[in-house]
Amino acid sequence: MDTRKISDGISVSPQITPDDVSEIAKLGFRSIICNRPDGEGADQPTFDEVARAAVKAGLEARYLPIVSGKVSDRDADDFGQALDALPKPVFAYCRTGTRSATLWSLSQATRLGASEILRATKAAGYDMGGVVRRIVNGGKTPTDNGDARYDVVIVGGGAAGISVASSLQARRSGLEIAIIDPADIHYYQPGWTMVGGGVFDASTTAQTMGSLIPKGVHWIKAAVAAFEPKDDAIVLDGCRVVKYGRLIVCPGLKLDWHRIEGLVETLGRNGVTSNYRYDLAPYTWELVSSMREGEAVFTQPPMPIKCAGAPQKALYLSGDHWYRNGAINNINIGFYNAGGVLFGVKDYVPALEKYIDRYGAELNFFHNLVAIDGVAKKAWFDVVKPDSAVQRVEKSFDMIHVCPPQVAPDFIRVSPLADAAGWVDVDQSTLRHKTFANIWSLGDVMNAPNAKTAAAARKQAPVVAENVVADIDGKSPIAQYDGYGSCPLTVERGRIVLAEFGYGGALRPSFPKWLIDGTHPSRLAWLLKEKILPPIYWKAMLRGKEWMAKPEKISAN
């Protein structure tokens, strides 16, 4: 018997026999629903046989037969009513379990989000892609056939999405391009570290989305509910459908604040802050500038995260402020990193370690933040060292800067575009999807083994644009991405260790060593970060001006 749990209230299964019923009762189920019509298979017991066994086992049984492939809206309503009325948990079955899973999905469409339904059924081994439009439409069959269609659809209006739209326009002005994004505001997220360090004002890192969408590009202000790549279609919330010739997926990633117990309840107060949110970065500086003594904790979760250096950037700028105002000897700084090294590219570690020593920071590797009590000013870490049992340790704090765990967005993780870990599955060189040839991805959401930074997106956008245009012209990919990423590590106010690297940790410096040696702190690199990169972002990158970002051609060999 193949029992597959969908929720606490229901599990589904392929065909069962009367002999299975006693085991179903032992497993704790209180009701059975049969969704397979009698006589569908030669070796199939009738519902009456199963029902008699259910009565003997003290279970209720309900017969809701559904012809394979013909689940009507009324069927879903009847299933939902039965599910509400029957004692729980409920055991539902049909020939394979798919009809039962489909009925549950449609019956719950007004109660649960599409991503939650798709995630639950996918975990149970059932693909609900064929009824996703109905799920998004509240469980009902859509009647609107007025689907829009564009040559290129871009999901996500962040750094990657707007940049690739502009790069496409620069190469092929006549394309009908649409960007799908529900947000009103676009943020320059690399600036939030500087906000938390008292260097930038938060307002300088935000502009309206409408002012940045390239002229001639359609902006669809909506959220994506699901993908139907076999039909070249995207289903939006509300069940509107957008068709595409080529699709570019770059919605960023999801900050999973809820994964840390107690964090959401205390964020922005009780000394708990994070530069990973626009509204919290100013609170970081408020805490740092007012602190004169006590325990300052900085955390970093397991990879992958956006801008792997950002958690320690907060430490360095805070430590520098306390170093300069004379409070450093009264403040104990602790860096709690779920990983085992200070920075993933070894060439930059010696320079960073000198600043760790300057600020007297204690390094705690393999420490992953799992819970926090803001009122009590306590945090708990699971220590997961190689070949050792997990230990939980408690740490008191006066101030704690939290970097949240990060995952792909829900609607990506449950989609056919995702790999086993939930990220969009691409070729790491061409950034083309491994399964669907008319789909590309860039930015934080795709699974190439590179650093998730805005600088990476700046290099990826021209590569994707070049390859999409080549595909439109019937050609093979002509541009390749070398894994470039950049992390300007703000080790003190006025100096930066400019880490630039590609796949495998290979150094990819943009400047000659005599100008900026990225392995050593540099004043010129600080000037680049503070004065030059923001206008390059707003006025060049987002407008398709590929300064120092021309795509590398694929070798003809």
What does the model show?
This is NAD(FAD)-dependent dehydrogenase. GO terms for molecular function: FAD binding; hydrolase activity; quinone binding; sulfide:quinone oxidoreductase activity. Its cofactor is FAD. It comes from Thalassospira profundimaris. By secondary structure, this protein is an alpha/beta fold. It folds into three domains: 4-136, Protein tyrosine phosphatase superfamily (Protein-Tyrosine Phosphatase, Chain A, Alpha-Beta Complex); 149-253 and 408-553, FAD/NAD(P)-binding domain, CATH 3.50.50.60; 257-403, FAD/NAD(P)-binding domain (3-Layer(bba) Sandwich), CATH 3.50.50.60. 28% of the residues lie in helices and 23% in strands. The chain contains 16 helices and 28 strands. The strands form eight sheets. Strands 6, 7, 10, 11, 12, 13 and 24 form a seven-stranded mixed sheet that branches. It has a five-stranded mixed sheet with strand order 1-2-5-3-4, with helices on both faces. The protein has a five-stranded parallel sheet with strand order 15-22-16-17-18, covered by helices on one side. The longest helix is centred in the last third of the chain and has 19 residues, at 454-472. The chain is globular and about 85 Å long.
